[in-house]
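Q: What would this chain look like folded?
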Amino acid sequence: MEKRVLLAVVLSFIVLYGYQAFFPPPRPAPPVQRAPQSAPPPSAVAPGGTVPPPGVEAAPPAAPAAPLVADSSERNIVVENDAVRATFSSRGAVLTSWRLKRYLGPDRQPLDLVPQNVPGSARPFTLVTDDQTLTATIRNALYKPSAEALNVGSAPATLAFEFKDAGGVAVRKEFTFDPQHPYVIGFTASVMRGDTAVIPIVQWGPALGTGIVGGGMTYAPAPQPVFYRDQKVTRIGIDDVPEGRVQEGALGFAGVDDHYFLSAALPARQPLHVEYDPVLVPVDGADHGLQFVSWAVKYPAAPQNERFFVGPKDFDVLASVNRDLVRAIDFGMFSWLVVPLLRALKWINGYVGNYGWSLILLTVLINLAMFPLRHKSVVSMRKMQELQPEVKAIQERYAKLKMSDPARQKMNVELMNLYRERGANPASGCVPMLLTMPVLFAFYAMLSVAIELRGAPFVGWIKDLSVYDPLFVTPVLMGITMVVQQRMTPTTADPVQQKMMMFMPIVFTAMFIWAPSGLVLYWTVSNLWAIGQQALTNRLIGPSVSHAVRPPAERRLKNAGAGKSEQASKERK
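A: My prediction, written as structure tokens:
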């Protein structure tokens, strides 16, 4: 029974971890560079951006209307709070940079969630309309900002951009920043053409970050569309974006995320219309390009106090903005257990100040709480191990009978009588182990997605608990502890199966070579605890007692005597 549980644990981890480690998602090939199509000369384009039919002479292009309210030249406006340094451009009144002060990128500088390596792409908060001429005017205009710079202190602050021209175009954008939610941008926009209000589409452009996608178990998977609808979070792989390009309806949030970060619209009004497009940027000399997902959102009316979240998938941060937004973190089926574990880890770290040591302390506390269950499991396995010679003797007597032979039922009766006589229960060894499995999987899920471990150092050579150990010390140590633990744990498996199980430390060590060092640290500490608990349990219950196998006649005589004694007792009564 305990052998089956152990195999179930091993197979489960191979499915959950081995697939990710050895079979990462295939990288999309760089897009084929097509020759640009020759565009019609400007004189051939009619007003409004359409090409006139053959034989019809195009009217000369209209001169751009003179600006009435505009900036004199293009410049950058910096908005800063405790967590973010944002940069807006007066040309188009768009967001050009959103740097997170508390998270570093590959260049060891504050991570910028606005990609800087996609030439010609739209920037966040670009407005698009059905009229190409109006859209070009809005995008290229120099907006007049309401401030030279903005430092968000203890009170909300607003940065406004305004543009008007003699042709009747009037555009205003307002960005609001709340110090209570440093990763949230409030957005209001109005577009007027004469006396007509135009409902624009808000383009975010490519997201997220650098587009560098790591392989295996690194923390840089490809960005992917994500949205929340009907109490369910849906993610679309970057290769499947064309099939799920348009999403609309009552969406709780919608945007793009990767392993640790999220950019999303938090609509105040419904229905919402969202469009996604994959963006692949080829890299010279590389077998794959940079990967992004561009997205845009359209509201039922012009945006008014709409909110956008651009920041880390930190549980407490997301919960403070919108309780449903925490669902953007993929905790898996054991989320009900992962969240308390994550809160406990953060609470311990508040005192320790190092997530590596905090992880060790949390592992010790959890194993201490599970000590009675594991102790009971080990004691039960010891009893089953001691009974194994007698169990095999019974099984051998019935080995030549077919499974369908009714006589084989006597074997089960003999086994149950043996267990009852010796006070052993085959299920008592595996049930405690099964009760600990949810904690094991929840811990795995937490360590796989917790942004708290991203960039968190431990000791010496381990500078980041979310990536693999660069010297591979912890995986080797983990493999050694697994060997010691297996040799100390009582088992009822036959010698051949025991030799096969000894290969499992080698398999796990190979799998954990590229695993996040925080996960390997947890597994190693758990193994060390199990070794210590096994030694303590062995000391408490004493050495193993071997039971001699009684011949069948002796057992029948004893059973017969027991039956006669029971019958005599009944007659006396």
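The chain has a mean pLDDT of 79.
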